[in-house]
Amino acid sequence: MSAVPGTRVEGTSGVGRGRCLRATRAFRAGEIIETYPKPLLALPAARASRTTCHYCLRYTSKRGRYASVKLKACTGCDQVMYCGQACQKAHWKTVHRSECTMFQHIKSTVGKEMPTPVRALAQVLVLLKKGDPATVAAFGDNGSLASNIEAFKANEKRWEDIQLQSVGAAMYALPGLTSPTPTAAAAEWAERAMRALCMIHTNSFDRLDPDQGMTGVFLDPRLAMINHSCIPNAFVDFQERTGVLKAQVDIKAGDEIEISYIDFTYPKTLRQECLSMYHFQCRCPRCKDDLDVYEICQMSPAIPLNSISLMPDLDKLRNPAVNRSGVPKGTIDKIYREWLLHKDGIYEVPEEQSLSVWHAVTPLMRACMWAVEPLPMALSAQCTSFVQTGGIYYALPLACFIATECEPYRYVTPFIAWRLKGVMMIVMLMAETARRTASGEMAKVCSHKKLADILASIDQVTICEALLRLIVYQGSVSSSEDSEVLFDAKDRLQDIESLEGREIESALTKKWANDPQDPQGGAFFQNVVLKAVNDLAALATEILELELMYNDHLVRGRG
Ligand SMILES: C[S@@+](CC[C@H](N)C(=O)[O-])C[C@H]1O[C@@H](n2cnc3c(N)ncnc32)[C@H](O)[C@@H]1O
């Protein structure tokens, strides 16, 4: 493995935490630590396989960066899609020439998509069989990747799945070897397939998109050297086929680089469940002392980065106004389980179904622990439910509330994609409510007087412009190239800039964005943008009570 400046691999596989990646120099928050442009595996998720280019992994969507991308299927197997000839050629060279016949066979016999890990394994097996050097070095009999195979075997149910999936992949990838009469070679390949699947589970990363969810699987042997922490100092972004490792906070030379394999804001037992696939006990302080998001936030070195964000009041991050007395440690997991039982009720009628969700999370609301899961998930689901059922006006205060009361505590670093998506959600809802306000529709539909008054009094377009500039500002801190949300923000900014008669407002937002420390720009952001967002956010709990015909004790407590 070649040494890359800035980091080195240390440790021994299978001993303690095994190998790890260590910084050999300091990195600033947002800085790129290293990139992985030639992954061994980069596949779209099975459910996205008709809408994603199988080489560059661009996915088609209605709006945004790839809206105009038209995908064409491989004429051989009709199973993989490409956005153009360059991608088709590159994919053919990388892997598809070895798997196209296999996909044709699968299509004619099974007739449906293989699950993503099986497809990934089949790809590894055809390349192993062919003797592809990089694949042999990682997955071969003396391959570099950790497999944790003994730990997988110890879990009967999981091992059964591994065996089944391995047989399925081997059947298609190695048709001659898995004939009905077992041979020594077939047994060897079966063993190899099971080990390779354990390696895939241990070392691959889900490509997670805040909008689309799981969009694919990515495996690079060097990226696979990074250990997990629920208080990570780095994160991985994906730009098309390239994985990009970035610093989430300032990192010192000599620090171990750690990412989170899971959503680190989940409650402890859920995190442990998600991590069980990796077969280790996490001993980070969040796990050891069962610290909640507020406690982690208070000690985060990323707090000062929020001075240009929707939460510039750093004291609020350092001293959150929560009252834990009603929610002793350990009860959060119980609340989470209770919420799981009822969570889908939020989208259902009659209201009692939805109310059971809120009953489950009531202790967290009373303690003002808005950032502690499952409360943010319940609030986001309610926001979506309002949008889907025509209550877009009510979704806006909720989105403002989530972006100010939940996300800054959960993801303290303000350029994390989830934070930027939260700001973008406000922009999208505000643009929609502005349109309906202008057409007079709002006056007919929105019965909440205070909300209607705020919407009628604010300059939504200017606020949207400032919020988009905030996304561009924060997004640029951590992006080598435009991410989806950054591209979308720039695209929407162009639309706004093309509106006539807004020269003064536009000049103000630009002035602020060019120098957020400038007193005039700062006052504009405070008095126009933050005031509107905070005023809207302040209506969120009241709207929940009214719209859900709540007993107000649920949200506000009994005084
Ligand atoms: C992607 S690999 C990371 C590199 C690995 N340490 C190695 O030597 O290959 C994932 C595996 O590393 C180990 N690991 C990762 N994070 C860990 C942690 N915080 N504590 C203990 N083991 C960890 C677990 O065995 C896990 O299945």
Secondary structure topology:
Elements: E1 7-10, E2 20-23, E3 32-36, E4 41-44, E5 72-73, E6 81-82, H1 85-109, H2 116-130, H3 133-139, H4 149-154, H5 156-173, H6 184-203, E7 205-209, E8 213-219, E9 227-228, E10 234-239, E11 242-247, E12 256-259, H7 268-275, H8 285-288, H9 293-298, H10 314-318, H11 331-342, H12 351-366, H13 375-388, H14 392-410, H15 417-438, H16 441-445, H17 449-457, H18 460-478, H19 484-497, H20 503-514, H21 519-537, H22 540-547, H23 553-556
Parallel strand pairs: 9-12
Antiparallel strand pairs: 1-2, 2-12, 3-11, 4-8, 5-6, 7-8, 10-11
The structure holds S-adenosylmethionine.
Describe what you observe in this structure.
- The protein has 559 residues and is an alpha+beta fold.
- The chain folds into three domains: 1-38 and 220-265, Beta-clip-like; 39-205, no CATH class; 293-556, no CATH class.
- Helix content is 51%, strand content 9%.
- The chain is built from 23 helices and twelve strands.
- It has helices at 85-109, 116-130, 133-139, 149-154, 156-173, 184-203, 268-275, 285-288, 293-298, 314-318, 331-342, 351-366, 375-388, 392-410, 417-438, 441-445, 449-457, 460-478, 484-497, 503-514, 519-537, 540-547, 553-556; strands at 7-10, 20-23, 32-36, 41-44, 72-73, 81-82, 205-209, 213-219, 227-228, 234-239, 242-247, 256-259.
- The strands form four sheets. The protein has a four-stranded mixed beta sheet, with no helix packed on it. It has a three-stranded antiparallel beta sheet with strand order 3-11-10, with no helix packed on it. The protein has a three-stranded antiparallel beta sheet with strand order 4-8-7, with helices on one face.
- Helix 14 runs antiparallel to helix 15 and helix 14 (392-410) crosses helix 21.
- It is globular, with a radius of gyration of 25 Å.
- It starts with 6 loop residues before the first strand and ends with a helix.
- S-adenosylmethionine binds next to helix 6 and strand 9.
- S-adenosylmethionine binds at residues 13, 17-20, 146, 148, 202-203, 224-225, 227-229, 278-280, 282.
- Residues 53-100 form the MYND-type domain.
